[in-house]
C-alpha cells in the first residue's frame, strides 16, 4: 500500500472545498459546474504534488474537500446556535442528490489526477500520435 503525501492531499482538498463553499448557495446546475471545476483543479494539484499514485492522491483530495466542507458547516451550526447567521445544510437537496453530486465531483477529481499523471509522465513513455 502506498503512503499518501498529506501536503498533496491538503492542497487538493483545499481547492475542492473552496468550490463546495462557493457553490453551496447556488442552483443545482451551477453547483455541479463549480464542483466539477474545483474538484478537477484539486485533483490536478494533488496529482502534480504527489510523487506517485496520482489518482489515489486526487481521490483522497476529493474526500478531503468534503471533510473540510463538513467542518465549515459544523462550525456554521455552532455560530448559528449562538445567534449568528443561519448555517447551510450539509446535504442540501437531500441525501440522493448529495450522493449524486459527490460522485460527480469525485469523478472530476480523478480526472484531474489522471491529467496530472499524463502531463508528468517521462518523455520516453509518451505515446506518439501520427
Summarize the topology.
Blueprint: H1 6-23, H2 28-49, H3 54-81, H4 95-119
Structure, explained:
With 130 residues, the protein is an all-alpha fold. It has one domain (6-122). 72% of the residues lie in helices and 0% in strands. The protein has four helices and no strands. The chain has helices at residues 6-23, 28-49, 54-81, 95-119. α1 runs antiparallel to α2, α1 packs across α3 (54-81) and α2 (28-49) runs parallel beside α4 (95-119). The longest helix is centred in the middle third of the chain and has 28 residues, at 54-81. The protein starts with 5 loop residues before the first helix and ends in an 11-residue tail after the last helix.
Q: What's a quick, concise take on this entry?
A:
By secondary structure, the protein is mainly α. 72% of the residues lie in helices and 0% in strands. It has one domain (6-122).
